[in-house]
């Protein structure tokens, strides 16, 4: 590609357009129509003259992963490549009905995001392998933003020059500015074994501290009466100089100058890592820019209570026998300072960002907590894919020398149990999304987890557990208390949806590793924890991670529909929109099915094994008697992708069936309301359907179909609690017409599917039970 900004912009815009379609479909802002003859082709219809068509793969959360460069725009029958993300937003306005004011601001944020993405491309690509090998701070700077928010680099308040200077991905050195602030204006807090003098001596070199004191004295002030506070250069130039003029003019605030230590901005933009002295604290500073969901200031209560909360949480971790055995690092917020504004603080219900302009939080550096041979990498890196399609998680697994199965087992074993323990025993959650979590690696293998950002993201249960009795009153006031379902959202949405949704999709796409297997591994880790902590059984029921569905939170809807760009006195809270199928439920079911195979008379079931069954089913699919009905007479590699996609869907399970111990058949069981069949007939709640093939020719015509239909029906009614079971055989498969009525099925007539004419057979639970009670089912 030529060094042409326009070309880079087109690449960035195309990628953003694909992301908008994917995430807006997930949040049901867009509702595309699936093509009848090709399940990976979708149409997003705006009106009779305008639509977008695209290719996409449906994943386990029901989300669509749009295929690269597959989106085509049709207007008045004229086809064009879709590469303009903002044009898509304008085109689809008639179906989104976004408020005009919100629309204008949304486009502003999209433009800012596109500008930032274009600048990243101009810098030149860096491979996933090379990023993986970088030091911790540099890896953070190579991340490309929140994977879910479409406006992940909106950064309202930054101009182009600010972006170049302060955006994390630009990797430019930042030298902090320093202020002296009258002690009368400062609220300061620190952990019990630290004080202000120790903090100052740790963070500021003696020569520079002497220079700062002389500057204070030159203003006829006593250094002992002033607190020395860092400030982000952008905040100083754009907020403090103008908004704190009264303090500056009467020397209650004195500008001291810049320090020599070099810092890099982390993903959150406002947190800075010291690369001159990596052992020094990371510093979190307010930035009055709007990015993703909120303005990035520092609220007073959370800021001042951060050290108290750190001590309390660390005390739990140190004294709890289970947690002490985990390689779980809590990066403590050891000290904090807050300076209130002279006027905004007096206004009741003032927009929150006016009162969050000046302060700091000092956090432990990850480098001070690592053991010999360990290194740290942001968990967000696991969702990174470079311009050549290579992933950092792929590089991690490759470098470790482990199989994907073994690597994932280690990953979950060393990252999940501590989070579960805080949830189940203490009714407490962190927000363990990729930016807040740090993976600890040794010999390229995952061996631990570090968490940061306690004060912003810890929540506790509204109806407290007894273990929360020691929580200090001042901390209780600063920590949100939420109901149990919302508490679980920090795991279900904050970890599973925000993070695992992308990791499992990458493994499925790049390595044909089924998503159901990913969540089976997660389930086994949770089950192992629960089996070894039986004293918490009541909590497992109370904080139930295994419900079939959970509330669906939608981050883009928050900005676009729920809060817009109005000012609020408090930070906005995401509201649920519908329900989301829980892949952990599927993972548990998949594991349980393997542990206790289903048997009915002469028939036995077991779940399809992606690795060991592929060759046999590939052979069956290419048999003429199967191929003419299933149309899956493909290469082994194509069939492997097909089965990976099936095992990455939330509504379908696949099985190998045996008669008298001999495996001869393959079956699919699906939830009808989630299947394409719902477009061709009336579906009732909790209807299930099945498909069946018998592989070996020599097994045809021996009456096995009778046994399989009964067994499949029994399975759906007894294990899935189906209300009705249906199947839709090709009208050429005549044996089913004789078999079905004897089991309780009714022929509802013909339906026309894209690839076949079929009979629709349905069987109610009552009809099946009646036949079973009469002894009329087949033996």
Automatic annotation (TrEMBL):
Coiled coil: none annotated. It comes from the Bacteria. Pathway: Siderophore biosynthesis. PANTHER family: L-2,3-DIAMINOPROPANOATE--CITRATE LIGASE, STAPHYLOFERRIN B SYNTHASE. Residues 606-653 form the Acyltransferase MbtK/IucB-like conserved domain. InterPro entries: Acyl_CoA_acyltransferase, Acyltransferase_MbtK/IucB-like, Aerobactin_biosyn_IucA/IucC_N, IucA/IucC-like_C, LucA/IucC-like. This is GNAT family N-acetyltransferase. One of its GO terms (biological process) is siderophore biosynthetic process. One of its GO terms (molecular function) is acyltransferase activity.
């Amino acid at each position: 590609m030529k060094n042409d900004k326009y070309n880079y912009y087109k690449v960035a815009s195309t990628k953003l357009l694909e992301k908008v379609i994917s995430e807006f479909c997930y949040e049901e802002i867009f509702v595309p129509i699936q093509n009848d003859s090709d399940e990976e082709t979708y149409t997003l219809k705006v009106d009779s003259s305008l639509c977008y068509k695209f290719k996409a793969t449906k994943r386990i959360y029901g989300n669509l992963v749009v295929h690269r460069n597959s989106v085509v725009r049709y207007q008045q029958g004229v086809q064009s490549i879709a590469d303009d993300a903002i044009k898509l937003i304008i085109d689809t306005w008639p179906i989104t009905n976004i408020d005009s004011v919100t629309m204008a601001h949304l486009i502003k944020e999209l433009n800012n995001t596109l500008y930032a993405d274009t600048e990243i491309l101009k810098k030149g690509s860096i491979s996933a392998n090379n990023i993986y090998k970088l030091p911790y701070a540099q890896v953070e700077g190579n991340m490309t933003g929140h994977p879910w928010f479409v406006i992940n680099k909106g950064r309202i308040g930054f101009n182009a020059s600010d972006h170049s200077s302060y955006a994390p991905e630009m990797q430019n050195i930042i030298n902090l500015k320093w202020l002296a602030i009258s002690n009368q204006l400062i609220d300061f807090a620190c952990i019990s074994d630290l004080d202000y003098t120790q903090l100052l001596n740790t963070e500021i070199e003696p020569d520079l501290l002497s220079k700062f004191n002389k500057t204070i004295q030159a203003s006829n002030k006593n250094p002992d009466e002033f607190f020395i506070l860092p400030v982000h250069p952008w905040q100083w130039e754009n907020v403090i100089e103008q908004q704190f003029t009264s303090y500056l003019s009467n020397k209650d605030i004195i500008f001291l100058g810049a320090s020599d230590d070099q810092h890099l901005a982390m993903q959150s933009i406002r947190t800075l890592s010291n690369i001159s002295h990596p052992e020094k604290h990371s510093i979190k500073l307010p930035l009055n820019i709007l990015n993703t969901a909120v303005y990035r200031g520092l609220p007073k209560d959370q800021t001042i209570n951060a050290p108290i909360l750190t001590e309390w949480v660390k005390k739990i971790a140190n004294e709890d026998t289970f947690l002490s055995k985990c390689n779980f690092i809590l990066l403590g917020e050891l000290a904090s300072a807050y300076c209130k504004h002279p006027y905004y603080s007096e206004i009741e219900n003032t927009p929150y960002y006016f009162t969050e302009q000046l302060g700091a939080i000092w956090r432990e550096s990850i480098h001070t907590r690592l053991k010999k041979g360990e290194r740290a990498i942001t968990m967000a890196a696991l969702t990174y894919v470079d311009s050549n399609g290579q992933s950092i998680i792929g590089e991690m697994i490759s470098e470790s020398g482990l199989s994907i199965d073994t690597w994932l087992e280690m990953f979950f074993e060393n990252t999940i149990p501590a989070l579960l323990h805080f949830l189940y025993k203490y009714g407490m959650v962190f927000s363990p999304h990729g930016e807040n979590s740090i993976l600890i690696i040794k010999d390229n293998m995952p061996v631990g987890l570090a968490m940061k950002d306690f004060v912003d993201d810890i929540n506790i249960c509204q109806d407290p557990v007894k273990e929360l009795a020691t929580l200090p009153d001042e901390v209780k006031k600063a920590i949100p208390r939420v109901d149990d379902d919302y508490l679980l959202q920090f795991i279900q949405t904050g970890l599973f949806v925000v993070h695992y949704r992308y990791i499992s999709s990458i493994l499925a796409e790049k390595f044909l590793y089924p998503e159901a297997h990913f969540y089976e591994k997660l389930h086994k880790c949770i089950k192992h924890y629960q089996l070894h902590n039986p004293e918490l059984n009541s909590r497992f029921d109370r904080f139930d991670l295994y419900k079939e569905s959970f509330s669906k939170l939608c981050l883009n809807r928050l900005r676009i529909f729920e809060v817009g760009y109005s000012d609020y006195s408090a930070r906005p809270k995401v509201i649920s929109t519908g329900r989301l199928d829980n892949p952990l439920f599927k993972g548990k079911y998949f594991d349980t099915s393997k542990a206790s195979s289903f048997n009915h008379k002469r028939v036995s079931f077991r779940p399809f094994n992606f690795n060991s069954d592929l060759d046999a089913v590939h052979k069956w699919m290419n048999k003429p008697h199967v191929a003419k009905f299933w149309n899956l007479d493909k290469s082994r590699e194509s069939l492997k992708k097909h089965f990976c996609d099936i095992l990455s869907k939330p509504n379908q399970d696949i099985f190998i069936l045996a008669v008298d111990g001999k495996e001869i058949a393959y079956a699919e069981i699906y939830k009808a309301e989630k299947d394409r069949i719902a477009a061709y007939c009336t579906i009732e709640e909790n209807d299930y359907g099945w498909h069946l093939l018998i592989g070996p020719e020599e097994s045809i015509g021996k009456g096995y179909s009778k046994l399989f239909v009964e067994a499949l029906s029994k399975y759906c009614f007894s294990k899935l609690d189906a209300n009705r079971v249906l199947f839709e055989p090709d009208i050429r498969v005549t044996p089913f017409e004789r078999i079905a009525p004897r089991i309780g099925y009714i022929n509802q007539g013909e339906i026309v599917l894209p690839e076949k004419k079929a009979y629709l057979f349905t069987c109610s639970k009552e009809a099946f039970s009646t036949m079973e009670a009469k002894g009329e089912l087949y033996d």
